Amino acid sequence: MIKNFVEELTWRGMIHTVTPGAEEHLMEGMRSAYVGFDPTADSLHIGNLVPIMLLAHYQRCGHRPVALVGGATGMIGDPSGKSNERNLLDEKTLRHNQEAIKGQLAHFLDFESNEANAAELVNNYDWMKDFSFLEFIRDVGKHITVNYMMAKDSVKNRISSDSSEGMSFTEFTYQMVQGYDFLHLYKEMDCSIQMGGSDQWGNITTGTELIRRIAGGKGFAITCPLITKSDGSKFGKSEGGNIWLDANRTSPYKFYQYWLNSSDEDAEKYIKIFSFLDKENIDELVEKHNENRGFKLLQKRLAEEVTRIVHSDEEFKNAKKASEILFSKTFKVDIKTLDEETFLDVFEGVPQAEISRNELSELDMIGALAAKTNFLASNSEARRALKENAVSVNKEKVKENYQLSSEDLINDRYIILNKGKKHTYIIKVS
């Protein structure tokens, strides 16, 4: 059954521009549409989630999604929204990245279905690698004028007087290569729609023009807005850089935390875009959230939905447990259930001091706080904190006579010290 895809995207806030006739075209029957992905890394990041969700919603509306890995275009570099050229990759690296990307897309798209709308993955390197330069400029290049190409914003911004770098011929040809992708998929897979971010409009419409001029057909474009954060900072970035979909690059805990820390305004926007919850559920969530914003109901549900999809139910539960563990009444038991990587994620940035196992057996609380670690400025400050009952080991209050031992070790090598509520320290035993 075909559902109204444009209508679904509209209430989710995922529509920027739609070429005339696209909605009607989609309602006539199952259609194929594609989105291109940059294969310059072996993982996608959350900046790619919007186009991924476009394809995922597309398949759920009864249509066939095609994910295109830009092996050929990845060797050129897309000038859209960029001020510099990218590093070019060899074929072996591109193939590796392609397989890794397909694995991540499989969390959102059904590639294995026997239905007609099963997702497909293609790589434009496969049809571009044997295309000679002479053939390309003869069969494709003559159909698009330089005037047409120069009028694109992605080109104008790079060759304007404000740009110091300029633009290579290689990048200038990018829109032609991407345009040819659309033409190729139109002819070979009956793919009549290309989707992407609003910054891709120029490249996409070059494709619709080639379809019109060479194939005498009609292609359609659907673009979504570029996602921004309410505070003006860039979506998908943290202090440590990109938030990746690969657990080895960004741990599930850090991934979960990114969504959990969304503002109220952003969370309301993101849950429509990055989850499969329906409008009724989301409206109810927003209403409940607004009754008590301090509980962060919306952020919690957003983080849950996205982490479950990208990673797994188990990884979501672990990330949630790790997030709540600092406030747990059974902290000493719960903290020992975390694996070392998650433990270090939770306490990232906390001051650490390293001691040997031999030193541990002789370490009193004064040494743990000052003499051996320099967490506190002096032994007298350590004594004062202990007399004031302000010191805890693994969240349990201790006195000056407390003796640290291997029983206190988390993951057989860490001890958490607290002075009051605001100061946390880690002793690492090597």
Structure description:
The protein is of the alpha/beta class and 430 residues long. It has three domains: 5-224, 3-Layer(aba) Sandwich (Rossmann fold); 237-327, Orthogonal Bundle (Tyrosyl-Transfer RNA Synthetase); 352-429, Roll (Structural Genomics Hypothetical 15.5 Kd Protein In mrcA-pckA Intergenic Region, Chain A), CATH 3.10.290. Helix content is 43%, strand content 13%. The protein has 21 helices and 13 strands. It has helices at residues 5-11, 22-27, 49-60, 91-105, 125-128, 133-139, 146-150, 153-159, 169-172, 174-189, 201-215, 252-260, 264-273, 279-291, 297-310, 313-324, 331-334, 340-346, 357-360, 365-371, 379-387; strands spanning 17-18, 32-37, 64-69, 120-123, 191-197, 220-224, 237-238, 241-242, 352-355, 391-393, 396-397, 414-419, 423-429. It has a six-stranded mixed β-sheet, sandwiched between helices. Strands 9-13-12-10-11 form a five-stranded mixed β-sheet.
Question: Could you outline the blueprint of secondary structure elements for this entry?
Answer:
Blueprint: H1 5-11, E1 17-18, H2 22-27, E2 32-37, H3 49-60, E3 64-69, H4 91-105, E4 120-123, H5 125-128, H6 133-139, H7 146-150, H8 153-159, H9 169-172, H10 174-189, E5 191-197, H11 201-215, E6 220-224, E7 237-238, E8 241-242, H12 252-260, H13 264-273, H14 279-291, H15 297-310, H16 313-324, H17 331-334, H18 340-346, E9 352-355, H19 357-360, H20 365-371, H21 379-387, E10 391-393, E11 396-397, E12 414-419, E13 423-429
Parallel strand pairs: 2-3, 2-5, 3-4, 5-6, 9-13
Antiparallel strand pairs: 1-6, 7-8, 10-11, 10-12, 12-13
